Amino acid sequence: KMDDDDDDIPQLSSHALAALQEFYLEQQQREGMKTSQGFNQYSIGSIEEDWQLSQFWYSDDTASCLANEAVVAAGKGGRIACISAPSVYQKLKEQDGKDFSVCILEYDRRFSVYGEEFIFYDYNHPLNLPENLLPHSFDIVIADPPYLSEECLQKTAETIKYLTKGKILLCTGAIMEEQAAKHLGVKICKFIPKHSRNLANEFRCYVNYASGLD
């Protein structure tokens, strides 16, 4: 009988069903925001986090604070590089018209929507960079290595040191303090970065210059 076949269909629990419905509703709302006139392709969340790529976006306040710090540190006409820190890049682009330039180095090719400012970047090949990215050509480099491992930090550090004229702003776990000092000569700041979703690991900012983050 047909009825017997119904018993074999896996049923979602009411809790899982409610969670799924909530997820789809949120997705519809986000899509609705994107199609409305006010949608800004540079707003945080316009490209959603991919946890499989260890992506966690900063809160709006944190991204703004780091972007403003970068603009001041870079100076008039300055060049800013964001390595694996797309939410800071997006905040910088919201300040369109300010006297600085910025590019984003990122493994996730979804960010190629940002055109020529997007540079594909794989930390496993730290110096595999386009020829037009000249050594020591950025006034400040902001980096947020995707993984809390010394190997990831060490390889990202190679890229940072290649690109920066001197100033470094690093965001990573508090547990990486010793390795950050060892590979980049940076010190921990008082400012505590926050993410749009709470992370289990305590996050901190590190710099090698007199910053406004203390």
From TrEMBL:
**Which portions of this protein are annotated as coiled-coil regions?**
none
GO BP annotations of the record are: methylation
Localization in the cell: Cytoplasm
Q: Which InterPro entries match?
A: DNA_methylase_N6_adenine_CS, Efm5/EEF1AKMT1, Mlase_EEF1AKMT1/ZCCHC4, SAM-dependent_MTases_sf
Q: What is its main location?
A: cytoplasm
Q: Which GO terms describe its molecular function?
A: nucleic acid binding; protein-lysine N-methyltransferase activity
**This protein is called what?**
EFMT1 methyltransferase
Q: Which gene encodes it?
A: Eef1akmt1
